[in-house]
Design a protein that fits this description.
Radius of gyration: 20 Å
CATH architecture of the domain at 64-170 and 255-300: 3-Layer(aba) Sandwich
Number of helices: 18
Number of strands: 12
Shape: globular
Largest sheet: 5 strands, parallel
CATH class of the domain at 64-170 and 255-300: Alpha Beta
């Protein structure tokens, strides 16, 4: 109980903030990989009270944002198939495709339904046996186990009209890809707590050993984030990098073996295309051939479209830390939450949405 009290303590947060200011005598550039970190940093006002020597940049940690334009267009194409229901999480429904969105398809008569879990999608499939129900599997290792579980449940229950369009991504390969970009300076990574709860600290070991880059897994309360930033600042300033777990009440060394086992039962590693980062080898989670009957890409013969990103939209550069949202020429002018151009303005974890909402 004592630990749970401390991480919500305002006194602890203030102390951590003072220590960061004492440590950071030269400018450091830290990437918060997770979109939830981005939003938490803004919501709690942490960005406004950090010393000027600490520069924070957002990374590819918003699952909707990194979904390639061609995969968004594929989801829209699935919604247009007669007698098909697309059951999706809310963030995806407003993401602009090349010529439409799932929201526009719904307004035009397609059956697109918002759900809060894959169990809701399975219930829709049970209630509509005469229709095909497709769930767009967008997310990282955090949501992949639950979506894998839905496929196992469908198979065990004999639900044959349910399938998943799988475009899941793996976080560790994206960190490797970030290191290869020219013009992107990163001194340390604030790693995602939710993803790490599944894959564990050890999942980043090969990345750390390869690049010797300061990495800290952090939670989402103000004290969690400030502790992560402090540890990164200390590593960077001292020149003594480490891979550290500062979210020990949730994240274990080997993650959640049961969740990983379910994920690996249904999915296998494969190549994937990320918005902003392009194709990354082994960064996707693809449905195994054994479960091809529940793979919407196989069932409907649909693959990602060859779709370019929206013209003028800097979402890709924002996702790799090359630009900040205010540096995009469309930000707050042509691109707004009411009429978004790119997914970074749509998602609740998107950098542009966070900058817009909190007045940056």
């Amino acid at each position: 109980m004592k630990h749970n009290i401390e991480y919500r303590s305002g006194d602890i947060s203030r102390n951590l903030l003072h220590r960061i200011a004492d440590v950071c005598k030269k400018e450091i550039r830290i990437m918060e990989v997770c979109g939830t970190h981005t939003v938490s940093l803004f919501r709690h006002g942490i960005r406004t009270v950090l010393p000027e020597t600490v520069c924070l940049v957002s990374g590819p940690g918003c699952p909707v944002c990194v979904t390639a334009q061609g995969d968004i267009d594929a989801c829209i194409a699935l919604a247009r198939i007669p007698n098909t229901i697309v059951a999706t999480f809310g963030d995806l429904v407003r993401v602009p495709g090349t010529n439409s969105s799932l929201l526009k398809e719904k307004a035009g008569g397609s059956d697109v339904r918002l759900v809060y879990s894959t169990l809701d999608a399975l219930d829709i499939a049970r209630a509509n046996p005469e229709k095909q129900v497709v769930f767009p599997g967008v997310g990282f290792e955090t949501t992949a186990p639950t979506i894998a579980a839905s496929i196992l449940a469908a198979k065990d229950s004999g639900i044959s009209n349910y399938s998943v369009y799988a475009v899941h991504k793996r976080v560790p390969p994206a960190l490797d890809a970030l290191m290869a970009f020219e013009g992107v300076r990163i001194d340390g990574f604030l790693l995602p707590g939710h993803v790490s709860a599944v894959i564990g600290t050890n999942a980043y070991a090969s990345f750390f050993e390869k690049y010797n880059m300061p990495c800290v897994i952090a939670g989402f309360e103000p004290a969690d984030i400030l502790l992560g930033l402090l540890r990164l600042a200390e590593m960077i300033q001292s020149g003594m990098p480490a891979l550290e777990n500062a979210y020990t009440r949730v994240v274990a060394l080997n993650g959640n073996p049961r969740a990983e086992a379910i994920m690996n039962r249904v999915f296998e590693n494969g190549d994937a295309i990320w918005r902003g980062l392009g194709p990354i080898l082994g960064s996707g989670l693809l449905i195994r051939r054994e479960f091809a009957d529940y793979d919407a890409a196989v069932r409907f013969g649909i693959r990602a479209f060859d779709s370019p990103s929206p013209g003028g939209c800097a979402c890709g550069d924002i996702l790799i830390g090359k630009l900040t949202p205010p540096e995009c020429p469309l930000f707050k002018t042509i691109c707004t939450p009411v009429d978004p151009v790119g997914p970074c303005m749509v998602s609740s974890e998107g950098s542009c949405a966070a900058y817009y909402q909190y007045g940056a």
